């Protein structure tokens, strides 16, 4: 008998969100990983509703043992005019189903304190899957300068590398939500894997898939069918497509099995002002520039450039129906 490999410890920083819900369910049905906590952030909904939704999703899954820590209600620069994507996910963030209030409660620690606590408890073992704006992570880095070296990896859903954004031509939603925080995270020296919409827009759940989920007896599949209507309608309006992008589940599966994507390495900086606020710019580091500048000596990160979309969709389907 071979040794079973150690399950990766993952914290999911999330703003649930319909595709967040799918990613959380797939994570809980992924034997390769152990979800050690959820931290919440604004994005698809405001932070307090993200916390409620996170608790609700864990209750649906029968996993009230997993702690939920509430994250920041403002950006890293104390911005309160947040961009909330309720027009994509419904006013409740979960397809306007108006689910009952969860029985569980968040823990007393803030998301930032909880992340720092886990990094100290399991040095070198924690992977953070960041599915929303990066405020909580940037605050952890500011509070504990050693934090980037204490965690194993940050897999983040964010950026639009060499393609148009989805908030405007320049910016992808999670980075646009807090560009200053994103720049702190990208330049922190952590082992970072960025999964942008340049790859997630290749991973599509179709109406056929939805019909398969509807015929499945799995509780996650049944729940997914309930919430996906609003998301399908949004994609039809915004992109004239009959399907939905699997952004968050793709980032999750990149954390579970990095070989499902290919990557390039270089420096990423985020534009923090002007009409390109939220732009992620990738430097392939092939040229040595003559003068010291904002790009000089910054740590490299990995950026996803291709994806095995059929394999990802199959895994999402199997784990929702399983």
From TrEMBL:
Indicate the principal place this protein occupies in or around the cell.
cytoplasm
**Gene3D superfamilies membership:** Ribonucleoside hydrolase-like
Q: Where in the cell is it found?
A: Cytoplasm
UniProt xrefs under InterPro entries: Inosine/uridine_hydrolase_dom, IUNH, Ribo_hydro-like
E.C. no: 3.2.2.3
Which family does the entry's similarity section mention? Answer: Belongs to the IUNH family.
The protein's name in its UniProt record = uridine nucleosidase
The protein's organism comes out as: Spirodela intermedia
């Amino acid at each position: 008998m071979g040794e079973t490999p150690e399950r990766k410890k993952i914290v999911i920083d999330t703003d649930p969100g319909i595709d967040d819900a799918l990613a959380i369910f797939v994570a809980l049905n992924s034997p390769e990983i152990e979800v050690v906590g959820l931290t919440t952030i604004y994005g698809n909904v405001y932070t307090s509703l993200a916390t409620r939704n996170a608790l609700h999703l864990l209750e649906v899954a029968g996993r009230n043992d997993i702690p939920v820590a509430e994250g920041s209600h403002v950006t890293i620069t104390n911005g309160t005019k947040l961009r909330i994507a309720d027009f994509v996910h419904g006013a409740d963030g979960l397809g306007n189903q108006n689910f009952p209030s969860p029985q569980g409660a968040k823990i007393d620690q803030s998301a930032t304190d909880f992340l720092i606590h886990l990094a100290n408890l399991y040095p070198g073992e924690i992977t953070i899957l960041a599915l929303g704006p990066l405020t909580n992570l940037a605050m952890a880095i500011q509070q504990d300068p050693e934090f980037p070296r204490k965690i194993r990896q940050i897999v983040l859903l964010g950026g639009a590398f060499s393609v148009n954004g989805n908030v405007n031509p320049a910016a992808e939603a999670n980075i646009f939500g807090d560009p200053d925080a994103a720049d702190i995270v990208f330049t922190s020296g952590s082992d970072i894997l960025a999964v942008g919409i340049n790859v997630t827009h290749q991973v599509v759940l179709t109406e056929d898939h939805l019909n398969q989920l509807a015929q499945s007896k799995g509780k996650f599949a049944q729940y997914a069918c309930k919430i996906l209507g609003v998301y399908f309608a949004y994609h039809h309006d915004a992109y004239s497509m009959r399907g939905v992008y699997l952004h968050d589940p793709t980032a999750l599966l990149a954390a579970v099995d990095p070989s499902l994507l290919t990557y390039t390495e270089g420096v990423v900086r985020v534009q923090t002002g002007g009409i390109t606020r939220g732009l992620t710019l990738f430097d392939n580091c092939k040229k040595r520039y003559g003068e010291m500048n904002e790009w000089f000596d910054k740590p490299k990160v990995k950026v996803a450039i291709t994806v095995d979309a059929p394999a990802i969709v199959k895994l999402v389907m199997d784990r929702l129906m399983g």
